[in-house]
Description:
Layout: E1 25-27, E2 30-34, E3 76-86, E4 90-95, E5 102-109, E6 114-119, E7 131-136, E8 144-151, E9 164-168, E10 194-195, E11 206-211, E12 217-222, E13 237-245, E14 250-251, E15 255-256, E16 269-272, E17 278-285, E18 291-302, E19 305-306, E20 310-311, E21 313-314, E22 326-329, E23 335-340, E24 350-355, E25 362-363, E26 367-368, E27 379-384, E28 390-395, E29 405-410, E30 423-424, E31 435-440, E32 446-451, E33 461-466, E34 476-485, E35 495-500, E36 506-511, E37 518-524, E38 528-534, E39 538-541, E40 543-546, E41 554-557, E42 560-564, E43 570-572, H1 590-602, E44 607-613, H2 620-640, E45 648-652, H3 665-668, E46 673-680
Parallel strand pairs: 21-25, 34-41, 34-42, 44-45
Antiparallel strand pairs: 1-9, 2-3, 3-8, 4-7, 4-9, 5-6, 5-8, 10-33, 11-12, 12-13, 13-14, 13-15, 16-17, 17-18, 18-19, 18-20, 22-23, 23-24, 24-26, 27-28, 28-29, 29-30, 31-32, 32-33, 34-37, 35-36, 35-38, 38-40, 39-42, 43-46, 44-46
Amino acid sequence: MIIRKLALSLALFAGTTGWASAQKAIWAAKVVEVSSQKAEGKEPFSPDKVLGEPNALPLGQISNDAWIPKKEGSKEFIEVKFGKSLVARQVTVVENFNPGSITKIELVDTRNTRHQVYENKAPGPIPETFRTLSVSFAPGKFRTVGVVVTMNTAKVEGVNQIDAIGIADVAETMVKKEFVAAKPEGVAFDSAMVNLGPAVNSKYVDTHPVIAPDGRTLFFARQSTPQNVGGAKDAQDVWFSTLTSAEKKTFSAAKNIGGPINTPGPNGLASVSSDGKTAILINVYKPDGSIDPKGASISRRTASGWSMPVKIEIEDFYNNDPENVDYALSTSGKVLLMAVDRNDSKGEQDLYVSFRNADGKTWGRPRNLGGTVNTKKAEFAPFLAADGKTLYFATEGHGGYGKSDIFYSKRLDDTWTNWTKPRNLGASINSTDFDGYFTLSASGEDAYLVSARNGIEGSRDIFRIALTPQFKPEIVTLVRGRVLDAATKKPVAATIRYENLLTGEELGVAESNPTDGSYTIVLPTGVHYGYRAEAKDYLAESDNLDVTDRTKYSEVEQDLYLVPFAVGQTIKLNNIFFTQSKYNLRENSYPELQRLIRTLKEYPAVEIKLEGHTDNQGDPSLNLKLSLDRVNEVKRYLVQKGIASNRITTEGFGDTKPIASNEQEETRKLNRRVEFRITKK
């Protein structure tokens, strides 16, 4: 029998991220390399079973949810990588069955250098049937991004199993020896629910609030009001209200969003993009003005208003109950959640996930989130917090205070089927009547939801409630700015992409506003990000932001520049990094270099000149040499990857061409740069 991932209690995790604030503990997110394996992919006993939190039960017995090496010998190993990096003080390896074979544990830093923190020269059987091997040590001067565990499986007779590998930045115990299923405790809030009042709510049903990630615009649906496009017989229209005072948390008088989003039929806005200017709508809009409930549409805000909604193409999409459907777009723009009734549903409506395809336009086949989240009754109104991990949803099947309650759950890995046991948000939010449609801005400060309690003239209204820090999603940073032509400084309609500079993995995508070039992206903490704008006939100047250690929500203003693709134009390679005062390329430079390689391969006639610059600190002659060494090192990398050497020339300028003041480090660092100039096209 395959045992599903189980949520662990507060007793099990002594403060892992999301359960307590003192300790930051993270678990493996990716298998980099493995010596041998009994199974592949997501199958029982495969290496992927070490990912995420400990989950193999019963302890001390062979489990489908732990890795088994295929061979027996002294050189069995597994190397894993984490989704974030931290200055580790502890590493923990959970040996679910037949422990004692581990001979060495090494930490892998951001430059792929290994640091040994554990050695056992005499591996062999130990009395326990399972073990949580926790090794504590003094923090190093590096950030850990991976772990390598080496085993001598021949010294422990029979099958060896590893269930989980984790690191923490404190030395306290990460896990106890006994796994205990979590109880669905209520969530605490620091204030009572507040009705948003007559500016937003009415005597009619006001429902399904959607707050833009920046917290400035609230969209919602209003039912059967005479002010709807189709009048009082119009089942539902989309309305919106804007924040008038962040301090007082007040909103303007609500307005009907109008056509083409609203029609005489039922209309609903299910989700908005990170900048609040792309909307996911229920139903498919037909050319004749009618709507079809079998699907969803997308509309973008333009200079003249919202565009005509266009059908979202989802592979093998169907809904056996088209009258009941919800959607939620992640702030990354790459994940679409939906509440639908399909043939593989557990009962009624279930929650599913679909991933954006590489073409950027279509979506993959919906995948059921699994039996931890879904029940035999209806699950609906999903909302994925800006951290991309914390899911809030309404359910009639998990028990609670009334007909439907709001619960939340944490995603444990990238399968999107492993979740912590859903927890009821408690009596502060849930009542004996209907409660649902929970939404939260990127800051995680205030939540909005719909309740039938104390509504105007007894109707359902929209309420606000503040979460305590303990139960907020993980920290994020909101980045906003404009995409501009580097030569003319005019706005450009572009696609913004952001990635993990350690792994090169693209994490999100957004669109700039074609009118003013504005964009907004949301970056979960714990990662060094690179981001750039892309548009036809332009080359991008990437930028980067390290939010690895951010401990509170923040907002950053950053314009992005696009350089016309023409001879003589110069492009700064902002995401190339070197060892301090040396010319060695750091690992997080590779995504930027790979993009340059793709450009040179796509345009085989293009020739470039790499130009190196330094600040004015130190000996000018040494600065000149360093600047030349660095661009030569970049050229060497490009040539190694297949670019002809005669297409690239180099020159070092040292500190002779500053672009900013050298008086302060904040501006001086801008002078340390590598650029390339297009010399032939």
